[in-house]
Amino acid sequence: MQCKLSESFSSILLLIALATPASAKQLKYQMSCDLGKDTTQMRRANGSTVTLTFSKGMCNVSVLSPSGASIFNYSASDMQVFVGVGLMTDGNPDAVIQADTFNPYKLFIISLGEHPRLIKTIQNQYGFWLRDDCGGIRIWTWDGEFQGAPDLADVYHNDLFVPDVVLGLQGNSLVDATPKCRAYFDEEIKGLESQLSRSEIARFRSNRISDEFRRGEIKGYILKIVFCYLYTGQVKKAKQSLAEMWPPSDKERIWSTILKLRSEGVLRQAGEKQPER
């Protein structure tokens, strides 16, 4: 058992490594609210002031315009703030504020340009992080609609196998930027495929894997491959991969379930339509 757990942990570490390519630059939130510390943190950009404070058990972020007018004010038990240039296409600085309200997390995007204002609020069951890759600063997360999905219940560390989603901004609109990161996801697919053998796929398709732990691992790898194809717009490849690796009697049900969860997930906030079946 100890050897099996060690091998499984190594596989998880490999998956995490595959999910962080060397070319990707993850950006840190420059300000964070640590519970129990009465501190005030401040950043100025383009004349606007972003202040993060902790008081009486709560974190608070306030954003003031150059004239001192209140643009944004919000409190939560834990908050993180990024201030910089590159998320929006207008070349002006922005403030990205994450409120760790957990159910759901909230992300606020505020323009600090000529007319400072709240641009967009995003909600998801998973938190958000920022990366400078795929053509600019992007918002990364996992699709929260898959959290606790029954089909992932028997996959060890199943939160690592839910779909990755990349979001961007065009003007004031939230857009799905996942297809722009296709090269990254294609590399992830190669890494996942390296964890699967033809014989194990054949045994999985015919429900002949007696080791439930290994069966769950194979199931997770297959679903993640399908998610990578689907969320980057490669719908035919996603469906083909599922047909080649999933039990034939169940493939229509799981495909319909995946499409349903995707249509109800975080991409709905970007106005994404259901892909063709």
Whole-Å distance between the termini? Answer: 41 Å
- Average pLDDT taken over every residue: 88
Note the run of SSEs as H and E: HEEEEEEEEEEEEEEHHHHH
Largest sheet: 5 strands, antiparallel
Spatial sequence of strands, sheet with the most strands: 1-11-12-13-14
Structurally, the number of domains stands at 2
Give the strand content: 25-35%
Structural class: alpha+beta
Q: So what's the overall shape?
A: elongated
Rg, alpha carbons: 21 Å
Explain briefly what this protein structure is:
The protein is an alpha+beta fold. The protein has helices spanning 2-18, 182-193, 198-205, 212-231, 235-245, 251-263, and strands at 26-27, 31-32, 40-45, 48-55, 58-64, 70-76, 79-85, 93-99, 105-111, 117-124, 129-133, 136-142, 164-170, 173-176. It is elongated, with a radius of gyration of 21 Å.
3D architecture notes:
It contains six helices and 14 strands. The protein is α+β, with helices and mostly antiparallel strands and 277 residues long. The protein folds into two domains: 1-25 and 130-271, no CATH class; 33-124, no CATH class. A hairpin with a 2-residue loop joins β11 and β12. The longest helix has 20 residues, at 212-231. It is elongated and about 65 Å long.
